[in-house]
Amino acid sequence: MTNATGMPPNDRPVVFLLFDDMEELDLAGPWELFSVWHDRFGGPPCMTVSASGHAVRARYGLQIVPDAALADGPEAGVLVVPGGDGSRRVAEDGVILGWVRQTAARAEHVLSICTGVRILHAAGLLDGRTVTTHHSALAEAAAWPGVTVREARYVRDGNVWTSAGVTAGMDLALAFIRAESGDATAQKVADFVEYPPR
Amino acid sequence: MTNATGMPPNDRPVVFLLFDDMEELDLAGPWELFSVWHDRFGGPPCMTVSASGHAVRARYGLQIVPDAALADGPEAGVLVVPGGDGSRRVAEDGVILGWVRQTAARAEHVLSICTGVRILHAAGLLDGRTVTTHHSALAEAAAWPGVTVREARYVRDGNVWTSAGVTAGMDLALAFIRAESGDATAQKVADFVEYPPR
After folding, report:
1. Along the 198 residues of chain A, how does pLDDT read in single tens digits?
2. Which sign, positive or negative, has the C-alpha torsion A50, A51, A55, A61?
3. What is the predicted ipTM?
4. Which of A139, A155, A194, B44 is the most exposed place for a label (fewest CB within 10 A)?
5. How are beta strands B63-65 and A63-65 bridged, if at all?
6. Chain B residue closest in CA terms to A39
7. DSSP annotation string for A19-47
8. How far is B49 from chain A (nearest CA, A)?
């Protein structure tokens, strides 16, 4: 996950992978925080992709139209993978997994929210890594060879960042912004969305 | 806002108003919590409407396709109005305001998130009410005749519920679920999305 282009990370977007039956807030929490970071405080731009480029229907019925199909998106500086029931199907979809693997290899950082960690695992990105996930999936992840599971709000292991369930994605996003842009900027983002950091 | 149909509130949906330049998380936070309430714990169904029935583009670019146009949606048991910069335009849109007024008159409850309170005000729903909003809009709301503003995470005044900025919508949603279904159910919803109540 080196910066193969030699461009500073802010020149490449934060790319959010959309898929059917993803959990709505797994996407929208980090999307909001990263977007405020971009809009007000100099963070990288944000965009969404789905396998086909057509709308996805999230777990509770929200229909979201992506900015691009996987094949048509720009190179990601940061890849964000939400979770939800649909992560099970994505974890068996060779086309999406191939894109995740290729994208991760060129991105600076890879983030998963909630059970999105299943997709990182299925793409072969977690060997030797420590991760976390939604409480309902901790046992599942603990059975993956070469993966260490920790129960935490979020875990950073090098450039692989994973969060606990749903709302923990917001804490992960804030921690990421803090690491990239410092405490003061992260605090301003949190203040704008009136999110007292945990 | 009496229950004109005589139906129990759970038979009528929670209807979320979508509009261009709404703040993404104003929608998605309450949407997630109400949807989990419906999906797992017997809460009412949730749906989205927009003026035309076509997709809206939220403040940071997320494109969301509504379930119906205003004219085609079912009668709302609960109306949820997000905020964001787009609330200024909606507050001058007679068609949407007319729908909000009519919908509110038949709904059990009306909720606004963040600066969505502007839309309730413009629809004439706040006379004599105490409300809150995003910190950037507290002074604006304090100038509305007949409206009392309180700086709080959320405010319930009868069947008008208003929240502070963005993430406070989740606390409002949890407070609503608690009032309708009790502490234990609200706690189960919070536990599922791993949101420690504030």
Report:
1. 444 444 444 589 999 999 999 999 999 999 999 999 999 999 999 999 999 999 999 999 999 999 999 999 899 999 999 999 999 999 999 999 999 999 999 999 999 999 999 999 999 999 999 999 999 999 999 999 999 999 999 999 999 999 999 999 999 999 999 999 999 999 999 999 999 855
2. negative
3. 0.93
4. A139
5. antiparallel
6. B60
7. -TT--HHHHHHHHHHHHHHHHHH-PPPEE
8. 11
Give CA–CA dist A195/B167, Å, rounded.
Answer: 6
Query: In this structure, which amino acid lies at residue A80?
Result: V
* B166 with A60: Cβ contact below 8 A: no
> Looking at residue B75, what DSSP letter applies?
P
Nearest 5°: phi and psi at B8? -65, 150
- What's the CA gap between B109 and B10, in Å, rounded? 12
User: Are A20 and A87 spatial neighbours (Cβ–Cβ below 8 Å)?
Assistant: no
pTM for the model? 0.94
Residue B110: phi and psi, rounded to 5, are: -125, 130
